[in-house]
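quick one: S-adenosylmethionine bound model?
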Amino acid sequence: MREGEPSRTAFGAAALRAVHQEVDEPRIFTDPLARQILGEDRLPDRAWNQPRLRLFIAVRHRFAEDSLAAAVARGTRQVVVLGAGLDTFAYRNPFPGTRVFEVDHPATGAWKREQLVEVGIEVPDEVRFVAVDFERDSLAERLVEAGFDAARPAFFLWLGVVPYLSDDAVRATLAVVAAVPDGEVVLDYMKAVEDAPAAARSDRATLEAHVAQAGEPLVPGRDQEHVHALLRDAGFDEIEDIGRREIRARYLGLPPGGSEGDAHVVRARVTRR
Ligand SMILES: C[S@@+](CC[C@H](N)C(=O)[O-])C[C@H]1O[C@@H](n2cnc3c(N)ncnc32)[C@H](O)[C@@H]1O
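yep, here:
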């Protein structure tokens, strides 16, 4: 992140969701505010030229919001969007009686609030904005200051953020989620691509160059065993991890062939105490 500046990758991810609404078949993730939150800015050309990344981003949000719906059906009434960027869940939240905490780096959060006013998206009363740098600040303290009840169940969406964070920041954040009753999180991570097919390596090189240029370099890829160990060490005992093969089968109805890909999305929950 560039000091004092909003995240540029947040704009990029939102642009991919907006283009997904317009061109992808099937549409995996429906977000009626995806275009509006971007304002009048022209969408970057590359948003049309990244079908694999668009698919992955659509899937991670669909998977997260489907998992959230199941958590709400079990009784969860607190939702925390970590590293929210231009995520729009809070403004189209279909679950009455749930409170939404949008957590982001201070500069990105401030920019988003201005952007919401600028583009005319109304912020419901139950939404709270929380400024946190995951590398430095206490997420638990900031959430409680904002009215979060750490003694009640909560669901955390943490999408497109872990690939930018150190292991220490990931551990600290997972500890906060796991300490909450019925704590559950959906996050995504990127593996190393040395053994991946040429198309995946080329996509990844493009992404790495772009985000580095935006001042938000990715940390080195993490393997699945490492991510699962981080989750288990934090106390998560239910882990559902989907990669490209499962994504193709589940969301595109294609035979689960091909390579596993480098981007994974994971749901992790604490069911035992
Ligand atoms: C690629 S964007 C993803 C945004 C959004 N979750 C989405 O899926 O569109 C990365 C987000 O992580 C946030 N972020 C990155 N590093 C952070 C840090 N150290 N502390 C807090 N937020 C951070 C950025 O501000 C940005 O909103």
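The pocket of S-adenosylmethionine is lined by residues 1, 7, 9-10, 13-14, 83-87, 104-105, 108, 132-135, 159-161, 164 (CB under 6 Å).
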